[in-house]
Write a structure and sequence with these properties.
- The chain has helices at residues 2-21, 23-40, 53-56, 59-71, 76-91, 96-122, 151-158, 171-179, and strands at residues 132-137, 142-149, 182-185, 196-201.
- By secondary structure, the chain is an alpha+beta fold.
- It has one domain (2-212).
- A 4-stranded antiparallel beta sheet has the order 1-2-4-3.
- A hairpin with a 4-residue loop joins strand 1 and strand 2.
- The longest helix has 27 residues, at 96-122.
- The relative contact order is 0.13.
């Protein structure tokens, strides 16, 4: 799965990066990123069949892209924006009507598994790189989770890629926007807060609009 995510995102991002930086940059970036990805992947701990295992599988790609852009002299801000675009290009390989049609089912599946995740958490059965959460059912359309430990933050720290955060935290807005879910958050661990306080609506609206900033919707 990790290799598939990486290959699709790289293929979909090639034209974007060539237009932005030129063919020489793309070739250098691809060479460094491919090498870094293959070095990182075997060192990424396996967290098993976690509630967050799909999110976690993006970690190897994020780390490879971040470290490669950094090695090629890009600023942290530019790296963040590039990774946002690469994610969007990868996710939108699926038609947007399909993404919106599956958004409600995806979150329903998530909320059903949250109870099991917390039970494993209470029995201390989670992998040390897994997420730790609290969960609140609001109504049929809405629920909230507070994330007190984040697997991607732990992974970034392991590979000296802490600069990935809080940029990759904002991906939740992109995904919710594309899938037609409501999402809002005012705190993240990546911003130095005590938790990520996430509110989800199965049916709702979420603007991606990074140009508006993320002051009040971390």
């Amino acid at each position: 799965m990790e290799k598939m995510i990486y290959k699709i995102a790289m293929r979909r991002s090639k034209s974007f990066l060539i237009r932005k930086y030129g063919i020489d940059f793309w070739e250098n970036f691809k060479a460094v990123s491919d090498k870094t990805f293959l070095e990182v992947l075997p060192q990424v701990p396996d967290i098993g069949d976690s509630l967050f295992s799909f999110n976690y599988r993006f970690g190897s790609s994020y780390i490879a892209w971040y470290k490669s852009f950094l090695a090629l002299g890009l600023s942290e801000n530019e790296i963040t924006h590039n990774i946002w675009t690469m994610n969007e290009k990868m996710i939108t390989i699926l038609p947007r009507p399909f993404l919106k049609a599956t958004g409600k089912a995806y979150l329903n599946g998530f909320r059903k598994k949250a109870t099991l995740h917390i039970a494993q958490q209470q029995r201390e059965k989670l992998h040390q790189f897994d997420w730790k959460i609290t969960y609140r059912e609001i109504n049929k359309n809405s629920f909230e989770i507070d994330i007190t430990e984040c697997g991607l933050k732990k992974l970034a720290y392991k590979f000296d890629a802490d600069g990935l955060l809080p940029g990759i935290c904002r991906m939740d807005y992109l995904v919710s926007h594309l899938m037609g879910n409501g999402f809002v958050r005012t705190k993240t661990l990546g911003d130095g807060d005590d938790c990520c306080n996430c509110h989800y609506d199965l049916v709702g609206k979420c603007d991606w609009s990074p140009e508006k900033g993320f002051e009040d919707r971390k």
